[in-house]
């Protein structure tokens, strides 16, 4: 299942071009500033990779053919999820490696202030932050993809962020507090980069992150296992 | 083998529910080939999808070999060709078949060899296997779809319009593969609008209309329920032909184009009819036995 996902994604010219563009856009700031630049642009790749991961197989009818085989639905679903993670990891690794090469082959040979700050460990930590954030977002996308058509899972994710962030602009302190609690539990922010660099960070946020990720994946499995798969016309 | 009891299914929600199946009860014996026929929108695909366990009936039960249709033990013995071929278009044919070989529980080490065998069985050459599926014609997609359904020689085959979009050679090839599966004892459920093909491969057909199973006809075996003879003779000799057949207790209807149409219970009865016509010196230009399934679409339930 993982292999099929990766082949499916990297076999599509449009998707490869989209990823290449994102990677190249990210490459220059990374090569110039190292980990400081972060993976802000490259993070968009998770949406390109994960959007419609289940719903497209449902609408094309490919899923029915796959599930007529002796495999569990959860096996398929988590195959998709790990396929997303592997694809994203490959993309981040390729971008980081290219940034590293560009830094050493181009930037270092050009007299420029701050070039010596480039560190592979820092870059790895930034890539790790991007990867884990992507892993969380893709779990939400996977959940929405089990019941929303096409790439409406992206809309679902956007709405979730909107709904959970809107209360902070409210006049009511009750709404602000409730919104904050909901955000902390449903979209917990963890400073992975600091953790990956070895800094001490509060464990509570990490715990909430793991719990929320598990909840999204379990919900996806429950919804997907119960879902009917009609197709075609009579 | 397959037991369907009082299965009903409706689509839609919030008061706008459309019935797709209404109290369907059906049995398919082990080794039997059953044809599902009926007009568009009758509920055939819904029934097939329920048999595969992708749709859950609102009421009623379905059991395949005593197990739920989505039981993995059932899936391990199932081959399925959907009407709408939702393939991974970016995959080469070989990778697609190998993927399904592995999903079906086949030994990965034998995937390559089995994929080539499967492709040979449906007339796909090596060059086609190395091409991406998006470059396949409709007929080629149908062939590779059939090849994946037949991987590991399943005991249970669900085929939805298997010859759709194929050329006459493709139609014949689909028929050959179905007959081959039938010969090795597979239980087959075939949904098709190609009535002559249905007639050639099915042991029995059920006619579905408006979500109900309205007719069931046995086409083969010792007591077929639907065997019609069609004999073409000179138009000027139609009356003589009717008389000759009536002497053999066969009630024939004559048609202005020169056809005599009558029910025959067995091959022997057909032979008697031809002999009677020959003895009456009525030339026989053409004679065939057919289930004339298209008639089912015309006659009210």
Would you mind describing this structure in some detail?
- The complex is a heterodimer of chains A (234) and B (301).
- Chain A is an all-alpha fold.
- Chain A has one domain.
- Chain A is built from eleven helices and no strands.
- In chain A, helix 1 crosses helix 6 (73-105) and helix 6 (73-105) crosses helix 11 (203-226).
- Chain A is globular, with a radius of gyration of 20 Å.
- Chain A starts with a helix and ends in an 8-residue tail after the last helix.
- Chain B is globular, with a radius of gyration of 22 Å.
- In chain B, the strands form three sheets. In chain B, strands 5-6-7-3-8-9 form a six-stranded mixed beta sheet, sandwiched between helices.
- Chain B contains eleven helices and 13 strands.
- Chain B has 301 residues and is of the alpha/beta class.
- The A-B interface holds A 3-4, 7-8, 11-12, 57, 59-72, 228-234 and B 11, 20, 40-46, 49, 52, 54-56, 72-73, 75-76, 78-80, 82-88, 90-91, 95, 99-100, 103-105, 132, 148, 158, 160.
Topology:
The complex is a heterodimer of chains A (234) and B (301).
Chain A: H1 2-10, H2 13-33, H3 45-50, H4 55-60, H5 62-67, H6 73-105, H7 120-145, H8 152-165, H9 173-186, H10 192-197, H11 203-226
Chain B: E1 2-11, E2 18-28, E3 33-37, H1 44-51, E4 59-64, H2 72-75, E5 78-81, H3 93-103, H4 111-121, H5 126-130, H6 138-150, E6 156-160, H7 168-183, E7 187-191, H8 195-201, E8 204-209, E9 212-218, E10 228-232, H9 238-246, E11 253-255, E12 259-263, H10 267-279, E13 286-290, H11 294-298
Parallel strand pairs in B: 3-7, 3-8, 5-6, 6-7
Antiparallel strand pairs in B: 1-2, 1-4, 8-9, 10-12, 10-13, 11-12
